Amino acid sequence: MRTPFVAGNWKMHNDLAAARDLMKGLRAEVAKPTGVDVAVCTPFTLLYPMGKELDGTDIKLGAQNCYFEPKGAFTGEISADMLKAAGCTYVIIGHSERRHVFGETGEMLKKKVVAAQQAGLHVIYCIGELLEERERGKTETVVDQQMKEVLTPDLDTSLLTIAYEPVWAIGTGKTATPDQAQAVHAFVRAKLSGIYGSDVANSLRIQYGGSVKPGNAAELFSCPDVDGGLVGGACLVAGDFAAIIRAAQQSAGK
Ligand code: 13P
Fold this sequence. Notes:
Layout: E1 5-9, H1 16-30, E2 37-41, H2 44-53, E3 60-63, H3 80-85, E4 90-93, H4 96-100, H5 106-118, E5 122-127, H6 131-135, H7 139-150, E6 160-164, H8 178-196, H9 198-203, E7 206-209, H10 214-221, E8 229-231, H11 238-251
Parallel strand pairs: 1-2, 1-8, 2-3, 3-4, 4-5, 5-6, 6-7, 7-8
Helix pairs in contact: 1-2, 1-11, 7-8, 10-11
């Protein structure tokens, strides 16, 4: 049985005052969620103060990226050890915005995943196809490739979550239908089984991301291979994020 996992990706949003307000709202709604793991992934500059805001709650802190070198002359970069020291439990690696806006390659992402796990961080590894790739029937080929490049047998699967985020559904208000999400999640799990064996594949969480909202979360999370969500826009509103967390709680044991 997999515990559903809901993570909020703040992306490049919130100043300190807005972030504190959002955390206050979240604490009031779901300080100690049961039957679901919850994380908020903030911009780097907010990690330390938001870690303090989360003290006494069961909500964990995450970052949205890291560099693969442990230290050195890498102006503007942040190491995995620095994230750990700032209080992070999680780090998102391979988000489509990192791949498509910043040109991160499979080779770089592999190094980042290894560095993050070596620092003791739990990696949320994102995969997903572009609209034109889906339209050309290439969804499975693309996610398979993104998995093969990074998900090698040497990784620590106890520090791994997969997030399937179809790029055409991110920030567009277009959500994959539950059937579309389930089909890709089942494919991903079958591929994970090929790499790690069926016991591990059945224990790994696969989140869905892409316009998850309070109104569609329950239906998506009820799919057998959808184990919660990676939430962008809706996680910036405490009540909406809390409603999505509750939908995941209700999906537990499905
Ligand atoms: P939206 O929920 O805003 O579509 O963003 C999804 C996402 O990219 C989460 O990482």
